[in-house]
TrEMBL record:
GO terms for biological process: carbohydrate catabolic process. This is L-rhamnonate dehydratase. It catalyses: L-rhamnonate = 2-dehydro-3-deoxy-L-rhamnonate + H2O. Its EC number is 4.2.1.90. It comes from Sphingomonas turrisvirgatae. Catalyzes the dehydration of L-rhamnonate to 2-keto-3-deoxy-L-rhamnonate (KDR). InterPro entries: Enolase-like_C_sf, Enolase-like_N, Enolase_C-like, L-Rhamnon_dehydrat, Mandelate_racemase_C, Mandelate_racemase_N_dom, RHMD-like. The lineage of its organism: Bacteria, Pseudomonadati, Pseudomonadota, Alphaproteobacteria, Sphingomonadales. Pfam families: MR_MLE_C, MR_MLE_N. The active site is at residue 318.
Length: 397
């Protein structure tokens, strides 16, 4: 019998890490990136100006009766701490981490009346990842072993950041650029978007994948025009998250309208098996991109991935560092993974969730070997030198 969970603790942390938009001035990730808020000129230059980094990181720590600690990080900050400590902890204390299915079900359905997506599911995801970490640490097994084992020897990565040309030199298989100008900047903005992409195509050569991340900023008409020009003039591989995550009808139309061969991708702000079922049943995209720290955790991602597999849909999770790596290595329908370049330039490979995780593997020549994941749980430790704040201790302490 495994030791039971004795303590549940939820902390917040600031300064990068799982809340990867919380970076210092001059970072590429906050440099005039198109967003749904770009229609307001005062919020166009910086995403931090409208509060993209307002939540911070949520750290969930579960301590078992024998003192073993499992933990996970995701976004959600102080409000997510409240949900974990004051609501979800009741489903954890005194329970075995091997009961992850029932625990997930209880967390989700007890919070459904105020949850279902967004912050609450981030909090549930953080708890679920901490459970899997604890389970792996108690069993002395990496999470990917518990998920069925590796289906290939290494992970291959594309890089997200403003410098696909540097990503190519660093050995990545492709580069995903942020889109800089949204519909409010008119035809001039559209032209600038195409010129930036064309410039990158010239720098990277013809056979390197180039993708555009539109971070929910476009409307269907703009997205269709952009897709055609970017495909015809620059050989774009995929157009990502062009529309609001709620606009399933728009995504279905975009997939119909897009040039044959260009992939439509979305899902990083979608959650649960029901949200992804909607995307797939409505034929909204070619690749789904759940974030394991936001979609419901590993327990839910198994269901999402199996449904995608049964429909022949590719699943390439969004960011999420080790939480994604341990999953992707086990799936045939996840042939490659994303690496978010968190160097400000970004001209170097640095750990995605630095400084919060210790022992986080990074791609070398665009790859991580499966054997690098061979440590119990998710194979990382919490960096306790960073300031951690615990705002709402539960009664069990
Ligand atoms: C670069 C994008 O705007 C965003 O910050 C990250 C993202 O959507 C992705 O990695 O995908
Ligand atoms: Mg994205």
């Amino acid at each position: 019998m495994l030791p039971k969970i004795k303590y549940v603790r939820a902390y917040t942390a600031k300064g990068g890490g799982a809340d990867y938009h919380d970076q210092g001035a001059g970072h590429w990730i906050d440099d005039h990136i198109a967003t749904p808020m770009s229609r307001y000129p005062e919020y166009r230059q910086s995403r931090q100006s409208f509060g993209i980094n307002v939540l911070g990181t949520l750290v969930v720590e579960l301590e078992a009766e024998d003192g073993t600690i499992g933990f996970a990080v995701t976004t959600g900050g102080e409000p997510a701490c409240y949900i974990v400590e004051k609501h979800l902890s009741r489903f954890l204390i005194g329970r075995s981490p091997a009961e992850y299915e029932k625990i997930w079900d209880q967390m989700y359905f007890s919070s459904q009346y105020y949850g279902r997506k967004g912050l609450v599911v981030n909090a549930i995801s953080g708890v679920d990842l901490a459970i899997w970490d604890l389970l792996g640490k108690l069993r002395g097994e990496p999470v990917y072993h518990m998920l069925g084992g590796a289906v290939r020897d290494e992970l291959q990565f594309y890089a997200t950041g403003a410098r696909p040309d540097v990503a190519k030199e660093l050995g990545f298989i492709g580069g995903k650029l942020p889109l800089h100008h949204g519909p409010a900047e008119g035809l001039e903005g559209l032209q600038k978007n195409i010129e930036q992409l064309a410039d990158m195509r010239a720098k990277c050569g013809d056979d390197f994948w180039l993708m555009l991340d539109c971070w929910m900023s476009l409307d269907l008409d703009y997205a269709t025009r952009l897709a055609h020009r970017a495909w015809n003039e620059c050989g774009l591989k995929w157009i990502e998250e062009a529309l609001s995550p709620d606009d399933y009808w728009g995504y279905a139309a975009l997939k119909q309208n897009a040039p044959r061969g260009l992939l439509v991708t979305t899902g990083e702000h979608e959650a649960t098996r029901w949200g992804f079922r909607m995307l797939m049943d409505m034929d909204c995209c070619d690749i789904i991109q759940p974030d394991v720290g936001w979609c419901g955790g590993v327990t839910e991602l198994i269901k999402i991935a199996n449904y995608a597999d049964s429909r022949g849909v590719m699943m390439v999770p969004h960011g999420s560092s080790v939480y994604s790596y341990h999953f992707v290595i086990t799936r045939h329908n996840s042939p490659f993974a994303e690496f978010l370049m968190m160097h400000p330039g970004p001209t170097e490979v640095v750990p995605m969730f630095a400084p919060q995780l210790l022992g986080e593997p990074v791609p070398v020549n665009g790859r991580i070997r499966a054997s690098e994941l061979d440590k119990p749980g998710f194979g990382v430790e919490l960096n306790r030198d960073i300031p951690l704040h615990r705002p709402y201790p539960n009664e069990g302490h």
